[in-house]
Write a structure and sequence with these properties.
This protein is α+β, with helices and mostly antiparallel strands. The chain is built from 14 helices and 20 strands. The chain has two domains: 239 residues, FAD/NAD(P)-binding domain (3-Layer(bba) Sandwich); 157 residues, no CATH class. It binds flavin-adenine dinucleotide (FAD).
Length: 414
Amino acid sequence: MAVVGAGAAGLVAAIFAASQGADVLLIERTADGGRKILISGGGRCNVLPSVPAPERFVTDSPAHLMRGMLKSWPLHEQRAFFERDLGIPLALEEASGKLFPQSNRARDVRDGLVALARDRGVRLQFDTLVTGIVASAPGFTLRTPAGEITAMRVILATGGLSVPATGSDGTGLRIAETFGHRMVETYPALTPLLGNPAAGHTALAGVSLNARLRAKSGRRAVETSGGFLFTHRGYSGPSVLDISHVVTRHPDVASGFSGAEASAKAASRTIRAQWSPLGVREWTARFDAPSASVASLLGRHVPARLAEQLMTEAGVPADRRTSSLRRSERTALIDKLTSYELPVIGDEGYKKAEVTGGGVALDAINQRTLESKRCPGLYLCGEILDAFGPIGGHNFAWAWATGRAAGLAATEPS
Ligand SMILES: Cc1cc2nc3c(=O)[nH]c(=O)nc-3n(C[C@H](O)[C@H](O)[C@H](O)COP(=O)(O)OP(=O)(O)OC[C@H]3O[C@@H](n4cnc5c(N)ncnc54)[C@H](O)[C@@H]3O)c2cc1C
């Protein structure tokens, strides 16, 4: 059996297939594999979340298929695999609910998976790019620049398009397409957003806070909350990354659309921010309380530099006291504090995206075995599939769960 791609999903698929006694060749284009694991979680690797969140996953495929695939390997069993089989104890980061290796070293996770694969008898072939796969009954022929490789079964775990420098540049997606699978158009997800320089937000670069963001994706309302960071080019942080797909899916508002269609698309990518836990009612009560400096009242709930910016944009003089706020100023300020329209003009794309949205549609594969419905003997797992989760270890949970399911199923007798 051949597994193509030694990333998170491919390594786990190979380990589980070999554990069932299969002869497994794991083919990887880079010199060492698992490069996304190495850069994950800021070099610490957020291996798993502590609490599952299937409802926060994004897919255009039937959602029950995604949930079934995710649930096939419950979190506590995934955690036990890392701690028991890999010998990598995980520690909970209380504030975020994320699980990291106790060592805080992503390298331990990558090296641990590679070592376990070798230990289970997986043969690893690095520096080998698979350029095409053809069904050659029986089995498959894999094309590489160095020649052809034959295998009775193939697991395609080549990832998506995000951070191509790690090895995932979409070759695998193109290969999947050649088999006639239904594909959902891909888009960068969990990627920072670009701000309009004219908004004057570059002066806020470095300011961070907890924010609540909301937008619409098609007919669905999307809401995220958590860390928000002003950057030199725009906006980042978990709350921004988690909502970025509403922008990346409607990238080009200006061209190709006009009238109602253009405004519907523009509305789709409008992100509104609430900068503190206080909503309209709570702010109104605070402005009604005994007189105080507006700047210092705001400064109790949002960073001072942001407070200053919001006051300027609302047309409120810096020395204004709450008792002398005009009604129009108060309304404008509360609007800026609770429903601020982020001046987003684009996104950082696949170069910075943590994952790829879209990919092979989940209804193109068997829900339990992850075997292609178009091509028996071909299995697909990981980011190549049409699903991604939020920041917090959920995307590795998807890669581990689908990798294991494909690895086990590919060893079942036909
Ligand atoms: C900066 C960053 C930080 C992240 N942090 C986290 C985190 O902390 N927690 C979390 O849950 N998720 C995180 N993610 C997301 C996570 O890394 C991915 O969801 C996960 O790696 C996907 O696994 P995969 O095996 O499907 O794909 P990949 O990890 O992309 O692996 C695909 C592999 O296939 C190889 N390959 C591709 N095409 C071919 C070919 N044609 N022939 C041979 N080999 C090929 C590639 O070289 C690569 O090794 C992060 C992502 C990024 C970019």
